[in-house]
Amino acid sequence: MASSATEAGKVELAAPKAQLSGLQLYSRFALAGAVCCSVTHGALTPVDVVKTRIQLDPVTYNNGMIGGFKKVVQNEGAAALLTGVGPTFAGYFLQGAFKFGGYEFFKQQSINLLGYETASNYRTGVYLASSAAAEFFADIALCPLEATRIRLVSEPTYASGLISGFGKMLTTEGVGAFYAGFGPILFKQIPYTMAKFVVYEKVAEAIYRVFPKKNMSDGLQTTVNLGSGLAAGFAAAIVSQPADTMLSKINKTKGLPGESTTSRLIKIAKELGFKGSYTGIGARLFMVGSLTAFQFAIYGDLKKMLGATGGVEISK
């Protein structure tokens, strides 16, 4: 009898943990996404400051990323490299939650709608549609904080930080000022996120086809996430660079009385031209490639730590 009880205890201890689902699962996806985006974007604030300066004032900042760093430090001191870190961290915390949590949610809804086999056979379309839907909602949350960040970077004396800058824009220009760049941010972020997720999924799938994931250690899986994320970041940066430049321009100053956002965008596009729209691409490739690589690495590790392993994979 004692032996049977011992064996039963062993069986109970060996039983696998039930996988999470519903709100418990997607809240963990959202938390992992919020942390990975806010930490990476916050850490790369100095690169973002230089990139934005190059876009807004290419005549002054005309010596590339390294030269831009030197000029900012010489003219304004090293602390200027952290301009906008508050809205960057807060904005991308919210955006990351909606982006990664939403991507996992909409991917599952696509599987539920289409069936597993159909979703797997047409997985590229599922990745694209899921990431686009997730990013739309993420941008609603991000846009006001991104507008505040750009205003702080473009006008260093505008306000002392996130709260004062946000409050000043709200009282002097109204809620509409926060969403003046909503069109450009959608035009930038939706293609960016679509490229980011589909390239990540495809590169990771290709690697795991040769080196099965089940045979890899956690460390090797993190390395795969880094490499796939780096490729995804480069693709996303190239696709979204013109809209990123326009977003910086339109949020630099408020529009003229009676001037619509559409007319401002058309005017900015004409002024920039194709070459001008890729101003600062070197700094942005470095920035986006690095942060995307680390985002996917952190996201993958945090999902494991949080026990968020209930998502369905449709890769082959």
Q: What is the number of domains?
A: 1
Q: What would you call the quaternary organization?
A: single chain
CATH class: Mainly Alpha
Stretches where pLDDT falls below 50 for ≥5 residues? 1-16
Count of discrete alpha- or pi-helical segments spanning 4 or more residues: 12
Structural class, by secondary structure, is mainly alpha
| Largest β-sheet summary | none
* Radius of gyration from CA coordinates: 22 Å
CATH topology: Mitochondrial carrier fold
Order of helices and strands: HHHHHHHHHHHH
CATH superfamily: Mitochondrial carrier domain
In percent, how much strand structure appears in the residues? under 5%
Find the count of extended strands (DSSP E, 2+ residues). 0
Overall 3D shape: globular
Q: What is the CATH architecture annotation?
A: Alpha/alpha barrel
Helix content: over 70%
Average pLDDT number: 85
Distance between the termini: 48 Å
Keywords: Membrane, Mitochondrion, Mitochondrion inner membrane, Repeat, Transmembrane, Transmembrane helix, Transport
InterPro entries: MCP, MCP_dom_sf, MCP_transmembrane, SLC25A3/Pic2/Mir1-like
GO molecular function: phosphate transmembrane transporter activity
Subcellular location: Mitochondrion inner membrane
